[in-house]
Amino acid sequence: MTDTYADLGLYIGGEWSGAERTASVLDPATEEVLGQVPLATPADLDRALEAAVDGFARWRAVPIAERVAILHDAADRLTARADHVGRVMTREQGKPFAEARGEVLRVANALRWDAEDARRAYGRIIPSADDTVLSVRHEPIGPVAAFTPWNFPAGSPMRKIAAALSAGCSIVIKASEETPGTACELVRCFAEAGVPAGALNLVFGEPAEVSAHLIASPITRLVAFTGSIPVGKLLAAAAGAQMKPCLMELGGHAPVIVCADADPVAAARKVAAAKFVNAGQVCTSPSRLLVHQDVYDEFVAAFVAAADRVVVGNGLDAGVTMGPMANQRRLKAMDEFVTDAVGRGATLVRGGERLDRRGFFFPPTVLTGVPDDCRVMCEEPFGPIAPIVAFTDLDAALATANSLPYGLAAYGFTRSSATAERLIRGFEAGILSINHCGGSVPEAPSGGVKSSGYGKEGGPEGLEGYLVTKRISHLLVD
Ligand code: NAD
């Protein structure tokens, strides 16, 4: 274990603890073991659930102004530690330090936004037809069980923690065992800011064991998950068996349509920047590039030039713009996508093979002329592979874009407002960007349609999932 990584622990009922069973945390840039993450036992999970009951009672009773002040304090602590937490994230996940530090600052802002939005969880008084006073209130749903992945080690946990605590809920969160240090650092900020014991509990463990245990418990009132569609379906089914609501932020396979009237060079640069951020391990990553035949050659040339400018290396080294894949599984998946595409007739223009060095490095990879039935055109690649295909008819391109069960993000490039409107209406996706590749922001909802999930994160809609609505009809009596 190295000194400069992070103290890893379970945080239950306001106390940090270890566990007998542990798993190694790897640095994907060096394959060095950074530390051991404790894995919770069923007894630890029961303690976390009991703590969440007490924590909910305490936290929901904290007056809103005080609650908001505590959450702002946590956000300020995190902001002040952005360098340290960013380094922890780079070491365990691989993304370049500037990206990691930026993520920390962004999530601190998202926390501030959610906390302020909780002040506006207004109810209403409704003019009634009789002598009753008819009103509607929003109340915290109760203890939340949340599960987050490794690609945004701060972003994913914070989305859930910020919304749950802002709404007045308690939460038991199982963050990724592959990126536990960042989650521990986030939780430390909340604990030091004065979030009461039990309101926020952090566990790690065997994912299937932990989710089965937490979802089955009658204490859990809401299940919030970010991750792959197959796992999301499993968890939603387990929650459905208990009639528990879920928020499901699942995978995507975002189409990009570049129309004949778009500036192909500007579009290529923007799409390449979005494609290679976090080595493509982003659920909204542009991953099926459909480019009009008239601008195809120019787009491909500019895209390849942008790919060539990406500097791959250890995210802690100056000048590096793309780190390694976060784990060995992604490296293997990239190999398989490329082999399958080339075997079916695609042209490999750049990259395509893991780099011959220690660490899970895979280069920016560009495939052209990719047949529709290639795996990379059908399954979320979750890596730095860009398949580019030409089209001539916009309706056919939209049909291709919508042909998969995914419905998370989509991107369109055109100078025509009429064509832009056609794309906006035509894309089956929950997150659209026109003429750029916009990222998520605290003030607007993000979330998918179709198999990409349901429920939103961010914006007022983000808080709604953590609240229940009560109708009260009050007959005044003397
Ligand atoms: P995976 O499907 O095994 O795991 C995805 C995430 O779910 C991980 O964080 C994992 O710890 C967790 N998980 C797995 N089984 C679980 C269970 N039974 N209960 C609770 N949590 C569980 O795959 P992976 O190799 O980690 O990631 C690969 C795929 O996952 C990618 O191809 C991508 O499609 C998807 N993914 C999506 C997102 C996203 O933001 N939507 C994030 C990470 C991974």
Molecular structure report:
There is one protein chain. This protein has 478 residues and is α/β, with parallel strands linked by helices. The chain folds into 2 domains: 10-249, 3-Layer(aba) Sandwich (Aldehyde Dehydrogenase, Chain A, domain 1); 254-434, Aldehyde Dehydrogenase, Chain A, domain 2. The chain is built from 15 helices and 20 strands. The strands form 5 sheets. It has a 7-stranded mixed beta sheet with strand order 14-15-16-13-12-17-18, with helices on both faces. Strand 8, helix 6 (180-193) and strand 9 form a beta-alpha-beta unit. The longest helix is centred in the first third of the chain and has 22 residues, at 97-118. The radius of gyration is 23 Å and the shape is globular. The chain starts with 9 loop residues before the first strand and ends with a strand. The model has no long low-confidence stretch (mean pLDDT 97). Bound molecules: nicotinamide-adenine-dinucleotide. Nicotinamide-adenine-dinucleotide binds next to helix 7 and helix 8.
Tally of discrete structural domains: 2
Q: How far from one another are the termini?
A: 70 Å
Instruction: Kindly report the average pLDDT value.
Output: 97
CA radius of gyration is 23 Å
CATH fold-level label of the largest domain: Aldehyde Dehydrogenase, Chain A, domain 1
pLDDT < 50 stretches: none
Instruction: Assign the CATH class of the largest domain.
Output: Alpha Beta
CATH architecture of the largest domain: 3-Layer(aba) Sandwich
* Number of discrete helical segments: 15
Category from helices, strands and their pairing: alpha/beta
* DSSP strand content: 15-25%
- Kindly report the spatial arrangement of strands forming the biggest sheet: 14-15-16-13-12-17-18
The largest sheet is:
7 strands, mixed
Shape category:
globular
The hetero compounds bound to this protein are: nicotinamide-adenine-dinucleotide
| CATH-defined superfamily of the largest domain | Aldehyde Dehydrogenase, Chain A, domain 1
